[in-house]
Amino acid sequence: xxxEIKLMFIxxxxxxxxxxTAKSATKEDIKLVLExxxxxxxxxxxxxxxxxxxxxxxxxxxxxxxxGKIKKDIYGKRIVLFAPLYVSDYCVNKCVYCGYHTCNSFKxxxxxxxxxxxxxxxxxxxxxxxxxLELGEDPVNAPIEYVIETLKTIYKTQNNNGxxxxxxxxxxxxxxxxxxxxxxxxIGTYILFQETYHKPTYEKMHPNCIKxxxxxxxxxxxxxxxxxxxxxxxxxxxxxxxPKFEILxxxxxxxxxxxxxGVGFHTxxxxxxxxxxxxxxxxxxxxVDDETFKKLVAIIRIAVPFTGMIIxxxxxxxxxxxxxxxxxxxxxxxxxxxxxxxxxxxEGKSIEQFELSDQRSxxxxxxxxxxxxxxxxxxxxxxxxxxxxDRFMSLAKSGNIQYVCEPxxxxxxxxxxxxxxxxxxxxxxxTLVRNLADNLERDDIKQIFLKSLEKLKNGERDLxx
Length: 465
Ligand code: SF4
Ligand code: SF4
What we know:
There is one protein chain. With 465 residues, the protein is α/β, with parallel strands linked by helices. It is 50% helix and 10% strand. The chain is built from 21 helices and eleven strands. The protein has helices spanning 2-7, 12-22, 27-38, 45-53, 57-75, 113-125, 144-156, 176-184, 199-205, 214-218, 220-226, 243-261, 290-303, 317-326, 341-344, 362-371, 381-384, 389-398, 402-420, 423-438, 443-457; strands at residues 78-88, 130-135, 158-159, 162-163, 166-170, 190-191, 232-235, 267-269, 308-311, 330-332, 375-377. Strands 1, 2, 5, 6, 7, 8, 9, 10 and 11 form a nine-stranded parallel beta sheet that branches. A two-stranded antiparallel sheet has the order 3-4. Helix 19 runs parallel beside helix 21 (443-457). It is globular. Residues 78, 80, 377, 379-382, 401, 404-405, 408 line the site of one iron/sulfur cluster (SF4).
């Protein structure tokens, strides 16, 4: 019975009905939804459907402005940076959109712990503090014990002042028992993309393989939450099914978790289907163009203002720049999506899971973010302070999170400059953070930050609120 209830939360006919009804929304209806969104009182499914169906250019512009305002009010200027780490490309699944699917023949690899440590030292020398650990599903070649051992290696490997302070983990849907093991290994967010909420498409995309069980995949976060993992990160792969359907699927999934466990998605990632080895895009009729993609990002921002939004280097620098305005709060930098890819990148040998569009180094991305008025952040404070799950959400919803995010961003970018920047960059960042400190709303926070700045310059590290 319990199992049946879980399965009922995504109802294809219901979602389709919402989208059909919303097609006849008038300009007045749209105006009312935008007003409601501005008050941040939460939008009903039918309201989100109205935004998804709207086409009027003027009202679209209004929506973008609103998304930008929400983004600015809640997240301020900070953009959190991270990198993915691929440790194994063994996979028993046959996801038709992925270069690692089991039928694709290439020499597969699982990193040894010595290899992992080597990758970590490279990532640390790039300044990274936060990783997303990625691997294919293979209970024999990459079982949960391997993941746990890898996490231990990551956390204990240091390179001068470099250390990884938070590892978010993206492993296949699994059991409560295995999620408990992940929780005990101190993961940050547990990430799992539904890929598509549309069941017939899901089954078509995952033929004859473990991952093909839609219900098991859909209820993975329920099991993770039962194992007391309270930060979960969701996403769909845009391009598989109708994107408007996917947005409503995401929203309904989020509400299901909020209702049942008191907290919904910590983050939503927005990957778009990209070419990969052995995968052609000709057979995907739902590819999302740039304009639609921007609209989807803005709607997610408006619908779930307190859920972080993540973009990867699948997107070009230009597209990432635009999306930062409408909702993205975290982005990867200097990524490699091949196993052992950081070491092999220079040699051009690695097989990436998908093609990357933004191939710039972290420092280039950081320089551009600063030029555009953002504060690049390597902050990992919340989960280390116990601010996870509903504790995090209540802080975010009260608006008080900004009092820690911004100074933490300032401390971490200063730490980065001191450890990895040349003299000119150090001066530039110190000037920036001092100016930012002058504009902090609360004087007590400003004083704490200024003390931290001196401590950082005297060699202390890892200072956060
Ligand atoms: Fe395997 Fe993941 Fe690729 Fe599917 S998407 S084939 S599960 S690595
Ligand atoms: Fe993220 Fe928390 Fe740091 Fe803010 S303070 S950037 S929410 S980890």
